[in-house]
Design a protein that fits this description.
2 domains, mainly alpha, 119 residues, 4 helices, single chain
């Protein structure tokens, strides 16, 4: 076991433990829990079996294994950013609708108060 292997193994375990801790504290939504647990487990598998990435990259025809890792990581991050942008847009629309509904309700309450005072 080289020191690089140990650092990678400890780092992978810490990432997985961090994900589990965020889940335990309910700071990471269940919606994303499976995704991040899978990412943590894949990271751990590639750390425990270092020959897996070169085998996979040669099987896919990629000359340098780290290029495959960076490409998959980039595609994953673009997917996450796209999904989060979609979520933010959806939540903005929902917030706007709720604000409009609240304004209508406040107007109705104010009108009812005026009607009750004038009676």
């Amino acid at each position: 076991m080289t020191s690089t292997y140990l650092v990678g193994l400890v780092g992978s375990v810490l990432v997985l433990a961090g994900i589990v801790e965020l889940l335990r504290r309910r700071q990471l939504g269940e919606k994303y829990a499976v995704l991040w647990l899978v990412v943590g487990l894949i990271l751990l598998v590639f750390t425990v079996f270092p020959g897996l990435l070169p085998s996979l990259s040669s099987g896919l025809g990629v000359a340098v294994p780290t290029n495959l890792l960076f490409f998959v990581g980039l595609v994953f991050l673009v997917g996450v950013v796209l999904h989060l942008s979609w979520e933010v847009s959806r939540l903005e629309n929902e917030t706007r609708k709720l604000a409009e509904d609240l304004a209508i309700l406040q107007l109705e309450v104010a009108q009812q108060k005026r009607e009750n005072v004038s009676e």
